[in-house]
Write a structure and sequence with these properties.
By secondary structure, this protein is α/β, with parallel strands linked by helices. The chain contains nine helices and nine strands. The longest helix is centred in the last third of the chain and has 14 residues. Bound molecules: SN-glycerol-3-phosphate (G3P) and calcium ion.
Length: about 240
Amino acid sequence: MRTRPIIIAHRGFSGRYPENTLRAFEEALRLRVDAIETDVRSTKDGALILIHDDTVDRTTNGSGHVKDLTLDEISKLDAGSWRGEEFAGEHIPTLAEALNLIEGEVMLLVEIKEPDTTHAVIETLRHHMAFGWVNIVSFHSKAIKLTKQNEPEIPCALIGGKEIGSSDGTFFDFVYDTLNCGANSVMVHYSTLTPKRIHYCHERFLSVGTWTVDNRDLAKKLIAMGVDAIASNFPDVMLETMAA
Ligand code: G3P
Ligand code: CA
């Protein structure tokens, strides 16, 4: 049997449901994706919650910076209505709620947006006995280094944006940053990838994940190049593409 890239539901099944909510995670599980990705930030009182932006403005009926709001204030916000009235009442979940829901049914990629939350994230994962079914991913090599120093068995990926793709040299520098912080994989913007660069990672036993791919033709091209994982807002489309 030929292996295929793993499909990651980016912020849950966020193309059709409100991102980073329990509903988006449940719908991703229903699809039988391989993995779910989510973003972690800390509230004013130190609770770990799942939200991409550093403010609640875009994805809730509230406003303000996450770091200036308490968990109590945040949990009262509606995180569903902005995507449609049928989603009214969805809330911003805590990391613990997502871990309780997913419980190892699929892999969970936990993106650390704020490196100073790393210890708290690891403790929450430990409490839920989740080391065997999570990856820690981050744009911040400091978060990966801290994770690997404390819990080397947690698989980690360093994330790279469009800027690392400007030349082979900048991409290879990013690969060295990845190796240096102890990560096991790169998770890079699709525009940065070429067959040569993917091979360069594979030679160094780094697997290659890419984001955020919502288009069938692009997915086919990346699969032909040899990517190991694809994060998509439309994991349904990605799974259909692979079945075809
Ligand atoms: O997994 C990588 C990807 O999620 C990084 O971008 O901005 O969607 O968190 P962003
Ligand atoms: Ca993310």
